[in-house]
Write a structure and sequence with these properties.
two-stranded antiparallel ribbon, alpha/beta
Length: 354
């Protein structure tokens, strides 16, 4: 269980707001595997929300099975952010998160995202405005990085100040903005931020660790090394939405029990695609599943023929027959675990060939 303000989550495992990926069909697929404590939308532009831009409306789309749900906003205009937060709460947000960590130029050139690390006084004004606007209804939280420039660790001081203006949870990515997604997450830096949050919030405000959670073992290590209250999982979940159930198993029992078989993993992929068809047009659903199959394939064992068939698929009605044929081809192996998390950990530990 994890408490964020007046919201109680069933566990401390969060699905990150991965840009371009965390839409409603994927969130539903991840939730169907179990143990997603909280899922986030893609990061949302206040302008798009208030103008009801069609793309932003799609990114915000939700349904009764998609809860609890965090909606993450990026921006630095006080009025726009407040109005967007109010709209998001009225349309299903369990909490509002402020993006203070995205290093992508599209976001930072508007002085939002990670650029907010460079303007802490204004950043605090944004946070306080959102707390005053919607904080009586839902928790307001923030996600940031260790610092903006290489080698910086300004996040502990910012974290203390954010807690003092009413932020109810802080997620810290263990890299600087300058690193973007290169190098490794700094667990020592995360631990410094965790200590700052706990001290400022009298151990009542949780701090979530993020970065390089590629297997359940990584989540276990981050919690042990940093004393963080939970973990936010990003890209690893895109290839294995069942990472939450397996991480919960490891954290609560000490081992990963009953890993999904090949047949069960294909059922998850099948559900993901059918959610796409239910919520989007067939053309977009096909384009999306073609992108997703490469990631999924890392957890399916030898599946070159399956990936090729899906990448060239033109008729959505043939998706299920393709999966069924692959299961028939695999015969008895269909009901075994094709790739364990221990296998993935060993593969990820191998040096990359030059």
């Amino acid at each position: 269980m994890l408490r964020i303000g007046n919201t109680i989550l069933k566990n401390n495992l969060l699905l990150a707001p991965v840009a371009g990926h965390c839409d409603l069909p994927f969130r539903l697929a991840a939730r169907s595997c179990g143990s997603v404590g909280l899922a986030f939308t893609d990061l949302l532009c206040p302008h798009g929300i208030l103008k009801q831009n069609s793309q932003t409306q799609w990114l915000m789309a939700t349904n009764p099975d998609d809860h609890p749900l965090g909606m993450q906003l990026y921006g630095q205009d006080l009025d726009l952010m407040a109005d967007a937060a109010r709209w998001a709460v009225d349309h299903g947000a369990t909490l509002i998160d402020i993006n203070m960590g995205c290093p992508v130029d599209k976001v930072t050139k508007t002085f939002a995202g990670a650029m907010m690390l460079c303007t802490p006084d204004h950043t605090l004004q944004v946070a306080e405005r959102l707390v005053n606007t919607v904080g009586h209804q839902v928790p307001v939280t923030a996600k940031t990085r260790l610092g903006y420039h290489a080698g910086e660790c300004t996040a502990p001081d910012l974290a203390r100040r954010l807690i003092h203006v009413g932020i109810q949870c802080l997620t810290i990515h263990g890299r600087t903005a300058a690193q973007r997604f290169k190098g490794h997450a700094d667990l020592t830096g995360i631990a410094r931020v965790v200590d700052a949050v706990h001290a400022a919030g009298n151990n009542q405000i949780p701090c979530i660790g993020n970065g390089d959670i590629r297997t359940p073992f990584d989540a276990q290590q981050m919690i042990a090394a940093t004393n963080c209250d939970g973990v936010m999982i990003a890209r690893a979940a895109l290839a294995a939405p069942w990472i939450f159930r397996d991480t919960q198993s490891l954290l609560t029992t000490g081992s990963i029990q009953n890993e999904l078989t090949l047949r069960q993993r294909l059922d998850v992929i099948r559900r993901h695609f059918h959610h796409m068809l239910d919520l989007r047009d067939p053309r977009r659903a096909l384009a999306r599943i073609r992108q997703c199959i490469s990631g999924y394939g890392k957890h399916l064992g030898a599946c070159k023929t399956l990936k090729q068939a899906i990448r060239t698929l033109e008729d959505p009605t043939q998706f299920d027959p393709i999966l069924d044929a692959f299961l028939d081809f695999k015969a008895q192996a269909a009901d075994h675990v094709p790739v364990t998390w221990a296998d993935r950990r060993r593969a990820l530990a191998q040096p990359v060939a030059a």
